[in-house]
Specification:
alpha+beta; 4-stranded antiparallel sheet; 2 helices; 59% helix
Length: 211
């Protein structure tokens, strides 16, 4: 009877020990699972944070690059505008200087042309910018030609822009020229004789109406 009691007592203790061992094993396993989940979650969070930081840095770099490109484009555009504006100012200054020079030349020519004149005379030498010895030339646009045209206009009182030149050439000697001109306004036509006066220019000597 006592043996049976002892045997049952030992069997009961074994069952209790086995239960405790299983319980302890389950607790240890649970601790391991929880710890694993904790560390795994931290790693994922760290990776996510690093990825987010990396994406943010990339976006910031791209934004900075775009800003630099925009600033560079703006600088180039501003530089081009300044160059264009500077070039326009230079061209305007050149045009103004040219216009002033032409106006001065016109005023000089008008001031050099003596007063009076006209078909009735008397006439004075028109003045000249040429030096001696004088060389007569009938090249259109030359200084000598321009001064002869000026003398024809002075002798006939026909403005140069209203005067048609039919002929302008040798007048019978090295210091003589002859021109035939007509007024566009009233159609009057004249033969004009010119003589070169040293250092004073061309002087009309006769104006003859042509029928």
């Amino acid at each position: 009877m006592k043996r049976n009691q002892r045997y049952e007592s030992r069997l009961e203790k074994r069952k209790q020990n086995r239960f405790l061992n299983i319980a302890i094993g389950l607790v240890v396993l649970l601790i391991v699972v929880v710890a694993f989940n904790l560390f795994s979650g931290d790693d994922n969070e760290t990776a996510s944070t690093n990825k987010s930081n990396s994406e943010e840095t990339t976006e910031n770099n791209e934004s900075n690059n775009r800003s630099i490109e925009m600033e560079t484009d703006d600088s180039k555009s501003k530089a081009n505008d300044e160059d264009s504006e500077s070039q326009d100012k230079e061209e305007s200054a050149e045009d103004k200087d040219k216009a002033d020079e032409e106006a001065t030349e016109e005023e000089k020519t008008e001031s050099e042309t003596p007063e009076g004149g006209g078909p009735e005379g008397p006439w004075q030498p028109i003045g000249t910018s040429q030096t001696e010895p004088h060389t007569k030339t009938y090249d259109d646009g030359s200084q000598d030609w321009n001064e002869m045209v000026q003398a024809l206009s002075y002798a006939t009182s026909i403005p140069q822009d209203q005067m048609t030149i039919f002929w302008l050439g040798n007048g019978g000697g090295p210091d003589f020229s002859k021109g035939t001109v007509q007024s566009k306004a009233d159609g009057k036509k004249y033969d004009v004789m010119l003589q070169w006066i040293p250092e004073k220019g061309w002087q009309p000597t006769s104006v003859t109406p042509v029928q």
